[in-house]
């Protein structure tokens, strides 16, 4: 009797997971097609689907596959990475609140990136290296501070929350005291953007020339 109940509960859970996963996949594909459809040149959704399956015309194919598809794929992969990172942290720490942005790892990366941009004047790939190093250093500090004859998930989360508050204040201080144009560049780096591909009218401040210049 007990085995039958357990089997029934497991079947219901598996069915629920399958339905939710299917629904999320459909919603993700719809948003993906919507991102490919909208822009300076709006393309009907049926034409987007045909192009994705190799049946579109040359002009539409160029706009979708060369200009919009790479950024849309990067956006989906970034979302997948965020979801996986949260799932990994919650599984390891057995705490539903655990995630890189909640326990200080993201704040450590942001703080290091802001220091690299505003204090040392780094740009490009070195900023990414500094952010990665900051994330690793912050994770190590959190682990050391959480060690009390072992590390428990709740203690790690509490220490991480405190580290997040301190590092966020560092980032806020750097942004509010820096030159407004440098702070704007740092803010763009922190928030991220996919709106910088060919043919986009997005503009950025050129710190070297100190003048507005189009980035297309």
Molecular structure report:
With 216 residues, this protein is mainly alpha-helical. It folds into two domains: 1-93, no CATH class; 95-216, ABC transporter involved in vitamin B12 uptake, BtuC. It is built from seven helices and two strands. It has helices at residues 2-37, 45-52, 58-93, 105-118, 125-146, 153-177, 180-191; strands at residues 203-206, 211-214. Strands 1-2 form a two-stranded antiparallel ribbon. Helix 2 (45-52) crosses helix 3. The longest helix has 36 residues, at 2-37. It is flat. The N and C termini lie far apart (67 Å).
Please identify, by name, the CATH architecture of the largest domain. Answer: Orthogonal Bundle
What is the first-to-last residue Cα distance? 67 Å
Q: What is the rounded Rg?
A: 23 Å
CATH topology of the largest domain: ABC transporter involved in vitamin B12 uptake, BtuC
What is the CATH class name of the largest domain?
A: Mainly Alpha
Helix fraction bin: over 70%
What are the segments in which pLDDT stays under 50 over at least 5 consecutive residues? 197-216
Which class of secondary structure composition applies to the elements?
Answer: mainly alpha
The CATH homologous superfamily of the largest domain is called ABC transporter involved in vitamin B12 uptake, BtuC
Question: How many individual helices?
Answer: 7
Tell me the quaternary state: single chain
Strand percentage lies at: under 5%
List the strand order in the largest sheet: 1-2
What letter string, H or E per element, gives the SSE order?
HHHHHHHEE
- Let me know the number of strands: 2
Mean pLDDT: 82
């Amino acid at each position: 009797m007990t085995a039958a109940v357990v089997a029934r509960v497991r079947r219901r859970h598996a069915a629920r997971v399958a339905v939710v996963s299917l629904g999320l996949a459909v919603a993700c594909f719809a948003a993906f097609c919507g991102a490919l459809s909208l822009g300076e040149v709006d393309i009907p959704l049926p034409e987007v689907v045909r192009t994705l399956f190799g049946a579109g015309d040359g002009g539409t194919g160029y706009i979708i596959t060369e200009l919009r598809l790479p950024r849309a794929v990067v956006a989906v992969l970034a979302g997948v990475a965020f979801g996986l990172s949260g799932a990994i942290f919650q599984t390891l720490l057995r705490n539903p609140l655990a995630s890189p942005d909640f326990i200080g790892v993201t704040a450590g990366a942001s703080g290091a990136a802001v220091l690299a941009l505003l204090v040392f004047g780094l740009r490009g790939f070195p900023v990414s290296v500094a952010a990665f190093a900051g994330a690793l250093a912050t994770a190590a500090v959190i682990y050391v501070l959480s060690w009390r004859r072992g590390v428990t998930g709740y203690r790690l989360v509490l220490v991480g929350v405190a580290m997040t508050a301190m590092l966020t204040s560092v980032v806020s201080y750097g942004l509010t005291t820096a030159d407004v144009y440098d702070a704007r560049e740092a803010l763009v780096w922190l928030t991220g953007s996919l709106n910088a591909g060919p043919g986009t009218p997005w503009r950025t401040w050129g710190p070297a020339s100190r003048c507005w210049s189009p980035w297309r």
